[in-house]
Amino acid sequence: MELARVWLRDGRAEARREWEIARRLRRRGLPRRPLESLVDVSDLHLRIACPGRYASQDIFGMTCLAAIAASRRPRKVLEIGTFRGATAWILAANAPEATVYTLDLPPDAAEPELPVGPIDREIMQRDRRGLLYEGTPEADRIVQLRGDSATFDFDVVGPDIDLAFIDGAHSYEYVRNDTEKVLPRMRPGGTIVWDDYWDPFPGVVRYLDRLADRGLVAIVATRLAVWTDVVPPKRTVGHEAAGEGRGEAAVTARARRTEEPVCVA
User: What is the pTM assigned to this prediction?
Assistant: First the structure.
């Protein structure tokens, strides 16, 4: 598979947009790496033709996400932020042995538990009825979960997550919450991918830049950031106290109480 050929097939306008993403990312703290430096793409057969016309991820981002899923061969995948279900399908289609758990707000969601910005509020108002994976063979392996990730009981998913894709609300508070909820449930050596590491979402950028010393990288010409070979903290899943992850004070207090590593440096 030649990633450049797949990329250019999407047209000159898309290539120009990807160049602009790359230009903006030059100012960021995470090192930029081509996808080929993270996974062996030489013998991958990817499925990136989404079942439906609408998807929030561009064609090259979908190709990268598909390549990561195909190369890692996960058995358990967690996605935070279903939206219309395009990336849930991408993950299931390219990881044929995996069960994909995907979490999103219910259609009648109340005020979010943590702060969100105007873009997230606009997204919450969009019509999310009709998931793109519905009616596909992959739908049998996709488990749709509903709830606010700040209060959702992730014990439903369980431990030993091989691949996580974090693409929920984009505020600093939510990105930190989602990462801290996912991290202790990861299988050692697993992979976490974050979307929207670019200028329109400074909360995502600010949080992930603080994790740069843990080996995170940004994939060239995409909005994706990746942490391969994750080392989960030494803690018991499901012991989080109420209100954790809602502020710097809570993170500091938890570090003092448990004397264990936390996700925020």
Answer: 0.80
